[in-house]
């Protein structure tokens, strides 16, 4: 069972396409400009990989490539959960072979 701290409230989930260019979580997902969390920074994010493997980095230093970074397979049982503004902002992902869809839910 996966749990997040009880004091956090989930925001609107989004699906991102991960291509052959390294990307982070979209700004509008982690700091929305509309809705009840407008202007607030996410305190955690919950990520599942839906369609193809990706690689990720979390340190803000290492450049993620299709050969460098933590290899993450398609999964619904083992999500990626990232806590803290710095870690969320430093998170980067890239596809390994084919474009991948990842589902991201921010928590405020």
Report the structural category.
Answer: mainly beta
- Strand fraction equals 35-45%
Biggest sheet architecture: 4 strands, antiparallel
Q: For the record, give the distance between the C-alpha atoms at the N and C termini, rounded to a whole number.
A: 20 Å
The CATH top-level class label: Mainly Beta
Placed side by side, the strands forming the largest sheet appear as 1-7-2-5
Uncertain ranges: none
CATH topology tier name: Jelly Rolls
List keywords for this structure.
108 residues, globular, 2 helices, mainly beta, 7 strands
Describe this structure in words.
The structure is a single chain. The chain is mostly beta strands and 108 residues long. The protein has one domain (14-107): Jelly Rolls (Sandwich). It contains two helices and seven strands. The protein has a four-stranded antiparallel sheet with strand order 1-7-2-5. The chain starts with 13 loop residues before the first strand and ends with a strand. The relative contact order is 0.35. The model has no long low-confidence stretch (mean pLDDT 94).
List the helices and strands and how they pair.
Blueprint: E1 14-18, H1 27-30, E2 44-49, E3 54-57, E4 70-72, E5 75-83, H2 85-90, E6 92-95, E7 100-107
Antiparallel strand pairs: 1-7, 2-5, 2-7, 3-4, 3-6
Provide a quick synopsis of the model.
With 108 residues, this protein is mainly β.
């Amino acid at each position: 069972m996966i749990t997040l701290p009880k004091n956090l409230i989930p925001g609107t989930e989004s699906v991102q396409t991960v291509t052959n260019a390294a990307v982070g979580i979209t700004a509008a997902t982690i700091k929305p400009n509309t809705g009840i969390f407008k202007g607030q920074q996410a305190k955690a994010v919950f990520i599942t990989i839906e369609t193809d493997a990706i690689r990720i980095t979390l340190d803000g230093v290492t450049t993620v490539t299709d050969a460098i970074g933590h290899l993450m397979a398609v999964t619904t049982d083992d999500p990626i959960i990232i806590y803290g503004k710095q870690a969320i902002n430093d998170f980067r992902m890239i596809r390994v072979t084919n474009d991948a869809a990842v589902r991201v839910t921010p928590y405020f």
